[in-house]
Amino acid sequence: MGSMGNVRIQSRRMVRPEPTASRLPEPETTIHLTPWDLKHITVEHIQKGVLLPKPPTTGGHVDVERLASSFARALGRFYPYAGRLAVSVAPHSQSLTISLRCSGEGAEFIQAVAPGVTVADVTASLVVPRVVWSFFPLDTLLGADAAAGTRPVLAAQVTELADGVFIALTMNHGVADGTTFWHFFNTWSELSRAGDDVMISTPLPVFDRSFLGSSCAVPIPLPFGKLEDVVGQRVHVFPPVQECFLHFSAASVKELKAKANAEVSSSGTDSTISSLQALLAHLWRAVCRARQLTPEQETAYIVLVGFRGRVGGIPASYAGNAVGNVTAKSTAGDIVGKGLGWAAWLLNRAVASWDEASTRDKLASWPQEPSFTSLPAFVAAVPTGTFTGSSPRFDVYGNDFGWGAPVAVRSGSGNKVDGKVTVYAGRGGGGSMALEVCLAPEALARLVADEEFMNATSTVE
Predict the structure, then answer these.
(1) Does the keyword Cytoplasm feature in the UniProt annotation (predicted)?
(2) Which of 12, 66, 80, 356 is spaced 20 to 30 A from 268 at the CA atom?
(3) How far is residue 45 from each of residues 196, 215, 416, measured CA to CA in Å?
């Protein structure tokens, strides 16, 4: 893979938001971060991107100015993301607040080339080549690092390959979750596709935090004397991982779901397993085998739960973090030995255990005892754990920038630790899915050699 050559940066610029008819310029305001935002200030940025064919009508060359222009118009709709994180230290007290200052300073836009990399280099191998990480800006930074300097909270990189184009977006996790990330991506691609027409179908984002009510007043004073105390001890070198990208056809997902539900039904349990729960259960069992866990070892699976549509008052197009997690636990012996239905039922029960009242209680109590997400701490505490982010509901393959739909989706190096799994809709649609799985190299080698697991996968990108 080293023969692919390097990614060369050709230009960098700060793109300022361009006002649209639907969202006029705003005076400088401040958005105060919620507990759900602040919890993610200690993790690396969200990094996702799409691989596209070369534009056929322009001799294969990408109209970078067109992409920069539509990026500016997308920023006009997501005006706060052209701002900067600001830290305010309270005088004579050991506390600080972190807010998003809507200053309109801009987001970074990078143009790059990788003439030695082809579309096949990215898509043909089961194991994701490390060069893909070079397609993403703001690498290895935590969300809090933007507050420590003058870094943007959003950056884009357009990399021209030998026979394709990779369009990547990096967004600070302290100001947005996956839903908001893809909302921006969808807005950008539709504006690029539509040209100058500002009447697009993607809705405007909603930054209003009034759903918090009086139970969680913002800004939230954090009991720390300086920002670095919030971050805590940094882990500069993670244990090595490899990642693979696996495809599951609609038929395969349907078969896993039917098998899981049949097993659950035969046990007399009244639960309906979803397609995603069946697929993740299939993976959980295989990861236990790949890690060669002993039967008595405890293993945990953490699944993200989105709050839009679950917590009253949160708009569907709310821009910010609105996500939590639930955990399923068992011994490795039971996960492997009791069948697909058992593992899927544990995931199903974990999701069903979520309730709005306790979520609002945690939201209200968080300022008194703030806690922050730390993936290194998670891996150290639960080395046998697996956790899944993202959602098959996100519109990934609809991101046509004006010359064709994506042929693949990949992510950057952010938050790549042992046990991290990202789920996407499959390129084929219709209920197909894809999983990006990060494991220790020796475990990953065993996973992709596991016939029971791999028989459910497809080779089609």
Answers:
(1) no
(2) 356
(3) 30, 29, 11
Domain span at 208: 2-231
Same domain (yes/no): 222, 248: no
Residue with more model confidence, 135 or 271: 135
Buried b (16+ CB within 10 A) or exposed e, 115-145: eebebebbbeeeebbebbbbbbbbeebbbbb
In the listed set 182, 202, 231, which residue is the last one of a domain according to the structure? Answer: 231
Angle between helices 275-290 and 250-266 (to 10 degrees): 90
CA nearest neighbour of 461 among 305, 217, 244, 283: 244
| pLDDT over threshold 70, residue 460 | no
Residue 102, both tokens: 């809507």
Question: Do 140 and 276 lie in a common domain?
Answer: no
Q: pLDDT averaged over the chain?
A: 92
Q: Which of 179, 204, 231 is the last residue of a domain?
A: 231
Report yes or no on 460 lying in a domain: no
Asked if residue 385 and residue 326 are part of one domain, the reply reads yes
When computed from its CA atoms, the radius of gyration of the chain, rounded to whole angstroms, is 22
> Residue 120 is part of a domain; what is its CATH number?
3.30.559.10
Closest alpha carbon to 86 in 73, 77, 97 = 97
pTM above 0.85, yes or no: yes
Peptide bond into 219 cis (omega under 30): yes
Give 298: exposed, middle or buried? Use CB within 10 Å, 0-12, 13-18, 19+. Answer: middle
Torsion sign across C-alpha atoms 425, 428, 433, 436: negative
CA 245 to chain CA centroid, nearest Å: 15
Q: How far apart are the first and last CA of the chain?
A: 19
312-353: pLDDT as tens digits: 899 999 999 999 999 999 999 999 999 999 999 999 999 999
- Percentage of the chain surpassing pLDDT 90? 80
CA angle (423 as vertex; 375, 309 as ends), nearest 5: 90
Cα dihedral value 292, 294, 296, 298, nearest 10:
-30
Element (H, E) at 178: helix 178-194
